[in-house]
Amino acid sequence: MTYKSRLYFLISLDSCIVLSTIFLSHLLFNQVSTTPTSAMLLSAVTLLICHHIFSFVYNLYKKAWEYASIGELLSIFKVISFSIFTTAIVQVIAYQQANYRVLVVTWMTHLLLIGGSRFIWRIYRDNYLKPTVNKKRTLIVGAGSAGTMVVRQLLSNPEAELLPVAFIDDNQKKQKLDIFGIPVIGGVKDIPLLSVKYKIENIVIAIPSLNKKQLNFIFKECAKTTAKTQMIPMLEDIMTGKVSVNQFRDVQVEDLLGRETIELDMTSISESITNKVVLVTGAGGSIGSEICRQISNFSPKRLVLLGHGENSIYSIEMELKESCKNKGIEFITEIADLQDYEKLLSVVDIYQPNVVYHAAAHKHVPLMERNPEEAVKNNVIGTRNIAQAASQHGVETFVMISTDKAVNPTSVMGATKRLAEMIIQHFDQISSTKFVAVRFGNVLGSRGSVIPLFKKQIQNGGPVTVTHPDMVRYFMTIPEAARLVIQAGALAKGGEIFVLDMGEPVKIVDLAINLIKLSGNSIDDIGIEFTGIRPGEKLFEELMTKDEVNEEQIYTKIYIGKTSELFIDEINYIINNFNKFDRKQLREALLELANEKMKQKKLISV
């Protein structure tokens, strides 16, 4: 029906209903004769006109009745009540009295027939226009406002692939009740048993207020079933119209391993970044690019994106220019090798940055074991070059991204990052620039993370390869790591090694199991294969050595490690002579020095 045809149909239908209610009410009280009385005619005409007037006032003819609910019923109530009230006033004016008994019955029948005529379409649609395709039997976790919204959307959408059959909610007051005809059948701990009983094929977690610990508990219960587990979208995405409530997303491993978002000290960060010039090395990498995104939120005057890979730098430049086109930020891109000191010196001289975030590094443990000279070139020499350039041109703050593998390192990558920390601390002692390092563990979704590898193995049908059943690692999401790096930079006084609270360590085999289940597969189908620890790897990572431990937080989730002994002469010796070492000798020298076992002037001979 066109809007005009629909309008004429509803006006005609309502006119018939209004006249019928007047006739039925008078008939009930034996007030109908062969010739209608003037009072009856006056009431009919008045009620008819008033009904149509108030229907337009309350948009009764514009309602989409296939989605009718309490709001539409309230509009009908207002239209009919005001129409009857007006008719009563007209009767009093014309006859000095109103026929209240007839009007009350008229109001009741009017409400019943108008409401029924509207809601019957929704009832017909919900019960007889459902598609014949098989729908997946779905369990909704959470019988609150979000859960009921999900059920309502699924029930009202004939094309939806999911059929809600039950709610799960730990609120005892809601259990054994029906919501939209869907029963609340138990609590979270009952999910495995009830999923079997109700033949559940899909589970939707519909509790936006869940913290990570609660979500983890619910997911573990869901993982005991064969059903696929999904979540409702972020509420802000629903409210802004980016997605609808029934566009569910799969549970991501980041949802289970990430921590609650911490509040940043916006004032101190703004003072260090807003209207300042910021340079980020490794700006095309996973950590560097996220630091750039986070920094852009604080409106720096200029953001210099420095990196070695032209494609990744171009990609983050285009992304930032699009997302920040109304912020007035100038984005500068520089392609440079950290080993090229003259180029770095030129870049710092031209742009005069106030803050440098040094995120560029070689991070892949097995590759650096096989190529220790490249780790030295990038992680040690490169760090010294950019630090020296920053010091020479009076940069206010220099923040280096380090790693937990720099603590008691057993790998070349960890050893070179520990030496880079020593270099940073040394420059802080001889320079007016505030030099600090920020140390954290594995980052979910980064290029060096194990998660992309696991996902690819699962896509290929398995098996998922885990080095050792007891191997554990600390994990942090990329945005969380970037935010805490920026916060640490704002707190810098000079010389600190900031250590980010990584939460509880996670067993890699548990991570693999979660990813397999999140992908909708079973452990038996994919399989897990243990391959043995690779060269340079440790079973357990540490964030601080015993000598560095300082348990006092200077900010939420941020600690300061105590400064240990620096071996700058030995580092310079290795830098100046590393091409004279063979790979085995170079690896031994790096590990001895990084673990502070090499004494002053007792260098490995080459």
TrEMBL record:
Residue ranges constituting the Polysaccharide biosynthesis protein CapD-like domain according to the UniProt record: 278-561
InterPro entries according to UniProt: NAD(P)-bd_dom_sf (IPR036291), Polysac_CapD-like (IPR003869), Polysaccharide_Synthase-Rel (IPR051203), SAM-dependent_MTases_sf (IPR029063)
Chain ranges passing through the membrane: 7-29, 41-61, 73-94
Pfam family, one: CoA_binding_3
SUPFAM superfamilies: NAD(P)-binding Rossmann-fold domains, S-adenosyl-L-methionine-dependent methyltransferases
Keyword vocabulary terms for this entry: Membrane, Transmembrane, Transmembrane helix
Similarity section: Belongs to the polysaccharide synthase family.
PANTHER family, alphabetized: POLYSACCHARIDE BIOSYNTHESIS PROTEIN EPSC-RELATED, UDP-N-ACETYLGLUCOSAMINE 4,6-DEHYDRATASE
Protein name: FlaA1/EpsC-like NDP-sugar epimerase
Organism listed in the record: Metabacillus niabensis
